[in-house]
Amino acid sequence: MVDDFVLSPTLDAEINEATKLLLLASQVVALTGAGLSVESGIPPFRGPGGLWTKYGEPPMDGYQRFLADPAQAWRERLNPTATWAKGLHETLGQAKPNIGHDAMAALEKIGVLTATITQNVDDLHRQAGSQSLLEIHGNHAMLRCMECQQRYEPDEIEIDPKALPPLCTSCGGILKGDTVQFGEPIPPDVLRGCYSAVEGCDCMLVVGTSATVYPAAEFPLEVLRRGGCLIEVNPYESELTPVATVSLRGPGGAILERLLHHARARQPYEATG
Ligand code: APR
To answer: Is this model's pTM higher than 0.85 or not?
Structure first.
């Protein structure tokens, strides 16, 4: 879909209309999913070309197994066995932001986008320069203390394979990967941030998500319930398509770039974002 995509004048007119909704809103919050990173070479989970479409769903008991035996879970983390898990880990490490991530960081810089909630753990929004960013499913490159929620960059903690699991230097709690596993509670500090962003939001820009995993999938519905508008960017239909105010049918990169173009054209900004 992405390689042979051509932006038609009709779609560009729809993007222009969607830009007006963004500029009329008082607080635009974005919700992004795996589809936004497809153009960075990271496959989605579901739908065409999805990891789980290809390999089937992974075991959903990772968090329970971590709780049962953190040391063993760390040994598996340090030596992943599943082929697709190894492949994804390498892909995540090499991926770079695409024009969609860059456009969203620029939309934030010129004051159109207030905050971005991402379900992606690939760190690409941060690398693209998004500042007001809520990583609701964590960040694959970080570690997190299960007690005090302290985050650690990889080089801040020495992982000794003979002394697993690594412990928090602040409170002595057990450290785990920051990626939120199925069945694991969303870290309370991030969840509070998401609810606060959604509370003030009157226009949600949803990019590249099947909108099937909660609580993130609830956020667009909450905005609609309060009379806000919902702009969806997705090359395929999703759970949100029937309720979206505007559905922009195409890949995130090309569409977000045009949204930025129309936003800049409508409101010249001092900032050169
Ligand atoms: N641009 C935009 N969207 C795209 C593109 C693209 N180039 N390619 C695919 N998509 C869309 C698909 O149509 C699909 O709707 O991206 C969506 C990806 O859906 P999922 O793979 O389900 O990813 P996501 O919605 O982020 O999953 C939510 O589920 O697997 C868990 O924790 C994981 O954060 C993830 C959560």
So the answer is: yes
CATH code of the domain in which 121 resides = 3.40.50.1220
Three-state SS for 122? coil
**Ligand 1 centre from 210 Cα, in Å?**
5
- 269 pocket-lining for ligand 1 (C-beta < 6 Å): no
Is 209 close to ligand 1, i.e. is its CB under 6 Å away?
yes
Residue-range definition of the domain harbouring residue 215 = 1-42+97-138+186-273
Q: Tell me what pLDDT residue 84 has.
A: 66
Tell me the CA distances in angstroms from 213 to 14, 41, 193, 217, one per residue in order: 28, 22, 18, 6
46 lines ligand 1 (CB under 6 A): yes
262 is catalytic: no
Give residue 88's pLDDT.
Answer: 77
Annotated active-site residue in 137, 140, 261, 262: 137
Domain count, the chain: 1
CA distance 151 to 180: 13
Residues in CB range of 220: below 8 A, 6 or more apart = 31, 204, 206, 211, 230, 240, 243
Ligand 1 neighbourhood includes 247 CB (under 6 angstroms):
no
Query: Which residue's C-alpha comes closest to atom 13 of ligand 1?
Result: 236
**pLDDT per position as a tens digit, 211-224:** 999 999 999 999 99
Give the 3-state secondary structure of residue 184. Answer: coil
